[in-house]
From TrEMBL, chain A:
GO annotation, cellular component aspect: plasma membrane
Protein name as catalogued: Iron complex transport system permease protein
Gene3D superfamilies registered for this protein in UniProt: ABC transporter involved in vitamin B12 uptake, BtuC (1.10.3470.10)
SUPFAM superfamilies: ABC transporter involved in vitamin B12 uptake, BtuC (SSF81345)
Transmembrane as UniProt keyword: yes
Coiled-coil intervals, chain numbering: none
Superkingdom classification of source: Bacteria
From TrEMBL, chain B:
Lineage of the species this protein comes from: Bacteria, Bacillati, Actinomycetota, Actinomycetes, Mycobacteriales
Location relative to the cell: Cell membrane
Name this protein carries in UniProt: Iron complex transport system permease protein
Family according to the record: Belongs to the binding-protein-dependent transport system permease family. FecCD subfamily.
GO molecular function: transmembrane transporter activity
InterPro entries tied to this protein: ABC_BtuC-like, ABC_transptr_permease_BtuC
Pfam families per UniProt: FecCD
Topology in membrane: Multi-pass membrane protein
Keywords associated with the record: Cell membrane, Membrane, Transmembrane, Transmembrane helix, Transport
GO cellular component: plasma membrane
Residue spans crossing the bilayer: 23-48, 68-88, 100-119, 125-146, 155-175, 204-223, 243-274, 286-307, 313-332
Amino acid sequence: MTVSDGASAPAVGAGRTGRFSWRMRMGVAIALAAAALVLFLLIRTGADDVMRWDFRFGPSFDRRFRTASAIVLAAFCQGVATVLFHTVTHNRILTPSIIGLDSLYVLIQTVGVAVVGARFVDNSDSILQFLLQTAGMVLFAGVLYRWMFSGRFASLFLLLLAGVVMGLAFRAVSEFLQRLIAPSDFDALQIKLFGRLGSVNTELLPIAAVICAVVGVIVWRRRRVLDVLLLGREPATSLGVNHQRELTIALVLIAILVSVSTALVGPLTFFGFIIATLAYQVSGDWRHRATLPMSVLIGVFTLAAGQFVLTNVFYAAGTLTVIIEFCGGVAFLAILLLRKGTM
Amino acid sequence: MPSSPTAARTGSTSTTASGAGRYLLPGIAVLCVALVIASMLVGEYHITIGGLLHGDSEMWRMFFISRVPRTLALIFAGVAMSFSGVIMQRLTQNRFVEPTTAGTAEWAGLGILLCFMYIPGASPLVRMAVATTMAFLGTVVFLAIINRVRARKTAIVPLVGLMLGAVIGAVTTYIAIEGNMLQAVVAWRSGGFAHIVRGFYEPLWAVLVVAVACYLMANYFTIAGLGRDVATSLGLDYGRTVAIGVTMVALASGVTSVVVGFIPFLGLVVPNVVSMLRGDDVRKNLPWIGVFAVVLVVACDLIGRVVVRPMEIPTSVVMGVVGATAFLAIILSRRFRDSL
């Protein structure tokens, strides 16, 4: 049922502590993430202002605050979703985007632009469109899970493969439509097809935050069950966990998180992978009480620090997500090639 | 068991499936001929059999400039992609591997983009060489990763390949954005057979070499598919067989992707369907795989040509949708459910 052998269950052993306890590590991570956020929020423009300690609040503060909120929400969604996904698939090299949700997002955006024109993209930050888009993606995932998990076809493999295949089909159709639309519409569309942190609509943030908070509470309350799921299907079942049910709940939560994140800041394929992988390395404890918050904190730190450096040193704030995807992809390749043992 | 489900099942399926195969396969062969003829006749320029028989010279001219090259390109591309699928499935001992699910196609795409950027006026032959080299590199990387995986579960291999393909796709996109070539890349990726005329498709004849070599090598691939240890103990030079196989796959997908872009799922659906009908004898199946691939590609191309006349839907798009449906049907069929 799970995607790997039991052998790949947490290699860390029983709550490895290392030299520092997981609480200490968490404290450091919180401090770093908060520092990066504050630094990003408070510094107005360039390195000159840092020298003069010239922190000013103004209209640009609003914009930065918006970006900072998007950073926190995106890190939360991607971090939690990826750790959950790794837990339920029993595999640490996949990311939830593999089941085709971001291809669906691209398809929705492309069809919108092909039918309505660039106007669709201009409106796409409206609350209605955000909610419809998210609902559409969650519905897709729900139907997929329902279909794949109902009786006859119950298999996680099939779910993943089916998602992948549908993703490929979505992509084929999107690419065809992208060829048909006018170059100006295509340029407008491109903005939507890459992760963007700087241009998030303020109105969407509270809604996304509420959704994230609800999902966060549900996940946190289940953290011990999730720890048991790490043991694998049979041990978990014999310990009294309803494996099928927990799997379904987790997958639905993942779908919600990925959909919210994608609708909010655009598709991110490897960001979740990279922060979850780092979280396993540095959290010092394999339990979800450590890995879940740690992945979110690493995500916040990476995005905020990256955005800060790009804005203030390289003056190229727009390309952060592309760079992260690039690095994430390279890290993914390196890990695949260098790791030993099972997947 | 999952390490080589094919070998384990060969006996039983070939006996049970032969009944269906006896009637279906001749039907497919007839269908293939009919579709090829249809492909030669359908299009904006009016061509009829009657006109051709009467020796209408203008009609014959258009026939050879446009229709014949296009149909040949379809045949070659279908054979190339499906044979690549067969070879890769043997070498990885996995039924879900083919150039698009192993990232090979994405590597070829990266090669083409690099060609666009650094050798703008490159001839198709140069582009093919670059694409083939990159495809070779990509396939080697994929095999290196897969060889490190001890748990060779059926589904994890294509998933890894797809993630790998996504990384390379991301790199390609990144470079394309930097070079302001994105729409060109998108256009090339979903490329099709619409622009195929005389003078553009000829490199595809190289596919014939791959096809013949594949037929001659079929039994070696079958033995290699038993795994390195078994193959070596049976007297096979495993490393060399893999190297030849990878080269053939790279050549086929490199050449095809330059001329017509990606054709998803073909290498996955066709060999699996033929295996379902006839069992797993690679060598005997190869001709049928070729025939069936031609049927599928030409049918998808015709759908794309007819539905939105006088415009065209690229074959890869039709194939993406048709192939995805067929693939879902295959993985949901009982036979595959057992092996997952």
